[in-house]
Amino acid sequence: MEKACKNVYITTPIYYVNDVAHIGHAYTTIIADMLARYSRLVGFNTFLLTGTDEHGQKIAQSAEARGKTPKEYADEISGKFKTLWDDFDITYDKFIRTTDDEHKAGVQKAFETMYAKGDIYKGDYEGYYCVSCETFFTEKQLIEGEFCPDCGKPTHIVKEESYFFKLSKYEDKLIKWYEENEDCILPRAKKNEIVNFVKGGLRDLSISRTSFDWGVKLPENMNEPKHVMYVWLDALMNYITALGYGTDEKHMDMWPAKVHLVGKDILRFHSIYWPAFLMSLELPLPQHVAAHGWWTRDGEKMSKSKGNVVDPKQVADAYGLDAFRYFLLREVPFGQDGDFSQKALMDRINSDLGNDLGNLLNRIMGMSGKYFDYKIDSKDVAKFHQKELDEINEILNNVEEYIFNMQLNRYLEDIWKVLTIANKAIGDYEPWAKMKEGKTDEAMALVALITNIVAKVALLLDSVMPQKVSQIADCLGIKINTQTYTQLIGNKELISNTTITKVDQLFPRIEEILLEQSAPSDISKNSVEIEAKEKKEAKVCSEIIEDDNLITIDKFFETTIKIGTIIEAEEVPKSKKLLKLQVDVGEGKNRQILAGIKEYYSAQELVGTQACVVANLKPAKLMGMISEGMLLAAKDENGLNLIRPEKSKTAGTKIS
Ligand code: MSP
Question: What is the DSSP string of 513-540?
Answer without folding.
Answer: --S-SSSPPHHHHHHHHHHHHHHHHGGG
